[in-house]
Structures are given as C-alpha cells and as structure tokens.
Specification:
The protein is an alpha/beta fold. Helix content is about 45%, strand content about 15%. The strands form two sheets. Strands 2-1-3-10-4 form a five-stranded mixed sheet, sandwiched between helices. A five-stranded mixed sheet has the order 7-6-8-5-9. Strand 6, helix 6 and strand 7 form a beta-alpha-beta unit. Helix 12 crosses helix 13. About 40% of the residues are buried. InterPro entries: NMT1/THI5, SsuA/THI5.
Length: about 325
C-alpha cells in the first residue's frame, strides 16, 4: 500500500512538473511571438497621445499579446500607411475619416481620444478680439485649408460680420506665439496645448471655442482609427489594441501627473511644465460627459457631416453609421 502511495505521489509530482514547464514555455512563446502592431501618430508627440504611451510603458499591450510600435506620421499622414497595409492603426480626426469615406476610402474611427472639440480661435489680448465680429479687419494665420475659411465664415455669420474683411494668410507650421509676434492677429489653436502654454508663458490671450458658437463643430478630434478591411480581417487584434489603449487613457485620467512623466520618458524634448499642465487639463476632457473613454455618438458624426455639406465642403456619399464603431471599447 505504501509503495502504491509513493508511486502515486511521484506520478502527481511529475504531472505538476510537466504542467509547470508547459506553462513556462507558453509564457515564453507568447512573449516571443507577440503580434507586431504599428500605430501612427497624427502630429509630433503631445498629450493627446499619452494613453498610447502609458499602455506601452505599463505593458498593457504586451499583456494582450501585442508588440506595439508608435511611430511619427509621414508627410502623407498615417492613413496612407494603413491603407497600404504598412500600419494597422493611426491617430486621426473626424474630418479626415469623413472626407476619406466620402471619397471611397473605407477608414473607420475606433475611439474618440477626447470627447469634445477643444479647439478655437485665439489672439493676444491686445488685439481686442473677443467675438467673431472682431475678426473684421484682422489677419488670420492658418494652414490654408477650405475648412478653416468655412468655419471662420460660419462663426462670423452668426455675428452678422463680413468675412471679406478678414485677411487670410498661410503660416505653415509656425506656432501661435511666433506668428502672433508678427503680422498675424489670430489663429486656430488647441486649448489643451497652446492655450495652456500661453498661461505658462504669461501671454494674456482671448480664446473663442468654436464648439460653443456652432454646436455642429463639436466633433471628435482626435480619434483612433483603422481601415474597414483590417478591422474585418483582424477583429481580435483590433479588440486587444483598443482595450489596452482604453486602459492607458483611463490611467491618464486617474493619474495625470504620473501619466505626464511616462510621456516625458518617451519624449524628453518636450517642455516638462507644459506637459504636466496640459495633462492635468486633458484628464478632465478625455471622457468628459461620456459613459466611458472612447465612446462616440452617431449624432456627432451626422451633424458634422451635415454642416460640411451645407457649407459646400463635402461631396460624395457619406454614411455616418459606417464611419465609426464602439464595439471594440471595454
């Protein structure tokens, strides 16, 4: 009897040893065979991207079996890499997805990085620009897109102001502070970066949020996106990526100071004070008024496309229902 017990005990130990070795091999296999995924940014690294870097740094991607690379965009933008199959995901914005789909390129938004449009027109306080009516007689510095002209016209129309009295010049990549030290009087900025920077620099500015004047312009910018083709072919990878990214942004919401330090670890060239202050501001914006980070509404996609069409800025067939999905969010 005793001999049988010993044999049985040795057998059980052997089984557990085999299982333990198998588990080690499985973990090693998962680690060495993680699925490579590339996500392309929309601009230079900034606090809109913090959740991605948090997910990378804290191993959220690795935990879901993904080996994620975050790369800077080429001149043609991240969408071009996704369409060419050279990247799987990219940081985009609602305008880009809308125009692409209307032109027949099937891109789709997977999550809203920020729930509301936090951009607007800013000027140095001494310019005396407090409403769109004050744009008359001033010089606007932008990047030369038809969208800018239409937005300025729409806002001025609400104040019975005359857009023909605005001088519109292209300033390329020159930032707000450099441009407004010269001949430019006002620019379109993102408050979470240039607006915060103005406060840190002690530059007194006036700021006109476009979404507060024209609700149809409260669109999603930026968003995470991919292509219809990739999503349909790789739904499990898409789910894993969005889930891990959402976890990264949730961490940034709950721990803005720590998240800022993580971003600075990957982009040490950024202004530390600006990153920290911007991160604290965006922590309250990422999921503002939403049930969860990333959630998108059909009405936002519908209303913005309708506004573009009303202003002659969107041609072709566009279905708001097909432009986004919430199905991969946690």
């Amino acid at each position: 009897m005793t001999k049988r017990l010993i044999i049985f005990f040795v057998f059980i130990v052997s089984i557990f040893s085999v299982l333990a070795e198998a588990e080690k091999e499985s973990v090693a296999d998962a680690s060495t065979h993680a699925t490579p995924v590339t996500v392309v940014l929309d601009w230079t690294v900034n606090t809109n991207h913090t959740g991605l870097y948090v997910a990378l740094d804290k191993g959220y991607y690795k935990d879901t079996g993904l080996d994620v690379s975050i790369v800077s965009p080429p001149e043609t933008g991240g969408a071009s890499l996704v369409v060419a199959g050279k990247a799987q995901f990219f940081v985009s914005y609602q305008e880009e997805i809308t125009y692409a789909r209307a032109a027949g390129t099937k891109l789709k938004a997977l999550a809203a990085v920020i729930q509301h449009n936090t951009s607007g027109f800013a000027a140095r306080k001494e310019e005396g620009i407090n409403t769109p009516r004050d744009f008359e007689g001033k010089t606007y510095g932008g990047w030369g897109s038809p969208m800018e002209e239409a937005v300025i016209q729409a806002l001025m129309k609400r104040y019975d102001a005359d857009y023909s009295k605005v001088k519109n010049v292209s300033v390329g990549a020159v930032d707000f502070f450099a441009a407004t030290e010269g001949d430019v009087d006002f620019m379109w900025i993102f408050y979470g970066w240039d607006g915060i920077a103005a406060g840190l620099k002690g530059v007194d500015i006036s700021y006109i949020p476009i979404a507060e004047i024209e609700p149809s312009l409260d669109y999603y910018t930026p968003v995470l996106a991919s292509s219809d083709q990739y999503i349909s072919e790789e739904p499990h990878i898409t789910k894993a990526f969005v889930m891990a990214t959402a976890k990264g942004y949730q961490y940034a919401i709950e721990h803005p100071e720590e998240a800022a330090q993580i971003l600075l670890k990957y982009a040490p060239e950024l202004d530390h004070d600006l990153v920290l202050a911007s991160q604290k501001y965006l922590a309250g914006q990422y999921a503002k008024d939403a049930e969860r980070w990333g959630q998108m509404k059909l009405s936002v996609w519908h209303d913005f496309a309708a506004w573009l069409k009303e202003n002659g800025l969107l041609e072709g067939s566009f279905s708001p229902e097909d432009a986004f999905t919430n199905e991969f969010l946690p």
